Amino acid sequence: MTPLLLGLAAYAAVFAAFGPRLLRACARRHRAAPRVGLVLWTALPTSWIVALLAVGLAATAHLSGGLGLAGLLHACLRAVRAILTVHHPADVPAAVALLGSLAILLRLGWTTARQIHHNRRRRTKHRREVRALMRTAHRCGQRFSIIDSATLVAYCVPGRRSEIVLTTGVLRGLPRDQICAVVAHEQAHLRGRHHLYVTWGSILATAFPFVPLLRRAPHELARLVEWVADDQASARHGSHSVARALATMATALPASTGAAPRAALSATGSDVLDRVRRLVEPQPANPGSRWSTRTAITAPLLTLAAAAAVLLPAATADPTPLCQGGQPPPQSSSQADRTAT
């Protein structure tokens, strides 16, 4: 088990610092296939968290005698007592590893709960503020809401009562084909549940801002979901219609800045100039980036397999001796050899 632990620890350390560089090497391929980039920028940060937790929990099990999750808690209590009463000092490393894992889980859970609460509150506030100003329209095969405003703004509000919102400025300032392209773009956001990717990236960056890989994730995920939505809208209405609509709406800024709520996904929510250039001048994937993409895809899969391999013994070990209030059973020589490896 020790080689797997060391491998997971090395993975967490290396990808925390150099993960963004690896993914930048895949950028040319992401530009041509943004779905691949979306998967990678979601999977790699998530696998980093999994690796870190697996290292902490498995190390605790290893240091506490391998008696499983019950043994972990027992070792933690013994270590706290050791700190206070100077008994069983050998349990302190196991307790430190366990408490570190619990700290990561608590930090992640607290940040997740707070982010979800804030997003729901913003969406509820937005609906309450604009409900009286909204009216419903049906165009381009899609129902959406209209707000009276001269600004050119389009966005979607995700959630259980998801909706697409366009201003009257969009309906007056864009021809029908471009309006349909904008509606299709926002519809792609809702169908793909793109807000979940963006929210997850924001949670990780907020919880662990000192990790370069996680700190970069929100920006990359926000850009990639826009690329995916652009491609889906282009498949239905043509890339030039999408590009012209984006360019027209972008030239209305900064007068339209702030019209879309923070918890929504706006059609002009990312680098519009780069998106227009990508639609008008598509570039094929660079064959040289394939090895980087394969490495980036393989790394999370191997990490999950390694995490399962090191955590399974801890989760399935027999905790009966501890449940009966006894001490960990002595290991045989063969068991000791297996534990050492």
TrEMBL record:
Keyword Hydrolase: yes
Required cofactor names: Zn(2+)
Protein name according to UniProt: M56 family peptidase
Pfam families: Peptidase_M48
Transmembrane segments: 35-59, 92-113, 196-214
Family according to the record: Belongs to the peptidase M48 family.
GO molecular function, one term: metalloendopeptidase activity
